[in-house]
Amino acid sequence: MIEIDLIRHVKVLGKPALYGSTDVAAIATENARLLERLMAQQKTSNAYQSVVSSSLIRCQNLATEFSLLCQLPLEISPELQEMNFGCFDGVPFDDLLFEGSDFEAEHQVDEKTQLLWSQLEAFFQAPADIILPEGETLSDFHHRVMKAWQNLIQQQIGIVTKQEESFQLEQGQVKKESDTFRKKPRRILVVAHGGVIRMILANILALDWQQASWHQKLQIGHGSISRILISQPYQDKQFDQAVKQTQYQQLNQQVTTIAMPFLEEK
Known about the structure:
The chain is of the alpha/beta class. It has a single domain, classed as Phosphoglycerate mutase-like (Rossmann fold, 3-Layer(aba) Sandwich). It has a six-stranded mixed beta sheet with strand order 3-2-4-1-5-6, with helices on both faces. Helix 2 links the parallel strand 2 and strand 3. Helix 1 packs parallel to helix 2, helix 5 packs antiparallel against helix 6 and helix 5 packs across helix 7. InterPro entries: His_Pase_superF_clade-1 (IPR013078), His_PPase_superfam (IPR029033). It comes from Colwellia demingiae.
């Protein structure tokens, strides 16, 4: 059994904007609060065994410090980056233009460099159909994230399998003890982004990730945790045989928590 906590990074430095692939830092004080909360949890029986993070610094800085302090293995995954919003990525909303505005008329803004609110509104209303200039398509984003998710799960299953095989060799196939070992889940912390977490949840819950309402209505708060429980159809087979024969599509993936606040409000 594997338990994966998807935690969204804290708020970032900078004016309100679409921060996708833009490598903007998190607010240091908020990061410190989240790190303190994670460290406190790590001292309990719910400790993590591994950390995975997006390669963007608003996620990676927290993941790196947490893994170093707790001496946990860390994997940095570029595929878990937020969606690339192209020319709109990292541009403050205050800097976007309205069509027909006085500024546009007075300064004769080049059409190729215009960033209009109407373009962004169209994307918000139909994210699967509208591609922002130089941006990533929603379909490509979905494919990238799901490939990373599948690889992560298969990698963790491989680790659990080796641990179980080693345990059985050391304990001489003692079934009762082996069952106890197996029931204790391997816990993984994944530090990622709101859009990435929505894609993973939509896939597991069999919801339409192309719908604008999914991205607009599901609020993934900064520093919140969404928890996924992954198990396998063991039946009466030996553990290692079940793992080797199980395909990703056959895994039981259950969402147990969605966007649970992890930091106390200030």
